[in-house]
Aminomethyltransferase (Magnusiomyces paraingens), 410 residues
Amino acid sequence: MLASIRSVAGRRAPAATMCKRFNSTTTADGLVKTPFYDLHLELGATIVPYAGYAMPVLYKGQSHIESHNWVRSKAGIFDVSHMLQHKFSGPGTTEFLEKITPSDLKALAPFSSTLSVILNKNGGVVDDTIITKHGEDDFYVVTNAGCRDRDLAFIAEQLTEFGKGNVQRSTIEGGLLAFQGPQAAEVLQKMTRYDLNTLKFGHSAFVPILGLGEFHVARGGYTGEDGFEISIPDVAAANEIARALLEAQDYVRAIGLAARDSLRLEAGMCLYGHELSEEITPVDAGLTWVVGKSRRTPETATFNGAETVLAQIADKTKVPRVRRGITSTGPAARENMDVYTSDSKDIASGTKIGVVSSGSFSPTTKQNIGMAYVPRAYMKVGTDIKINVRGKLRPGKIAKLPFVEPKYFR
């Protein structure tokens, strides 16, 4: 029950516990274990390889749809420790981050965050990222696990090229939990003396939890629901906090990757390698808003690929394809399935116009949904299309994003 969560915010953990850090170990087949690996097994998780990590896709006694609906109605915890957490600091850090991203980080208030993209010299997306400003030239940055090696190599190369100041980058290892759903704030509030009502969407704070220490808590997430992402470098504290959350069993369940993907798709959120790649610009992806308005002049556009990106913003004809939502009938469309014009009679003679980037059945809206890249001429909501699903053209439509309106705490 919710009331049974240990409200021991005044208790402090022993100093030795506070200093522990997670040392990565691997499974027999070489997959990296997160700090919660043993907990996943205890909960009956089905473990799958994901970005080189052993990750839970489902848990015993829960179907994908049940897990998905639980997060929409109550609260779920997700192990996202595979994500790469960075700390950037030192003179020149803001200027450097504004070189590799198009965000206006100078104007970002302390302990506020922004979704951004790391860009290559052609304006293509190397990775998407959340950047949190802690202070002047002091940032916490989260990037994707699947891009870890490439991101680290790219950042190192860019730092060498930048050659200014004294920018320091380090990796924060340990646990990272996403706690998402309409009951998340009420449950987490029982574990801290910090007033979570003062923490709005897109903001963060170092929050005392269960007397185990102060941990970076960011209000936001990847589901469209209210929630938090909690960075817990200490492995013992990470597991104690996860288990404490799960004590509220009428409200909280552990949720795997399957539901995480369908939740983010309903929320219209991009997944790297699907909606984003080095060949796709933020303008192509419908993320023009990540380009700070103050960074759209020749004097301020110092970010990688600025010429290409600003040309697309100024002239829509330079954006040949756009990301759009889709709905369809029959079996759900999936990644890399081709999109055709509505008058196409068959695959052999039809006119192919685009490609599906992600697709699934939506447990919330009870329909097949997805995202696709299509020419601008076909971008209008309601436009009829057809999709090659399992060798047969199925009717579909261009749809408004997101499919489920966000419920952020603002």
Q: What stands out?
A: The chain has three domains: 2-81+174-266, 82-169+281-315, 320-399. The first strand starts at residue 45 and ends at 50. Confidence is low (pLDDT under 50) at residues 1-23.
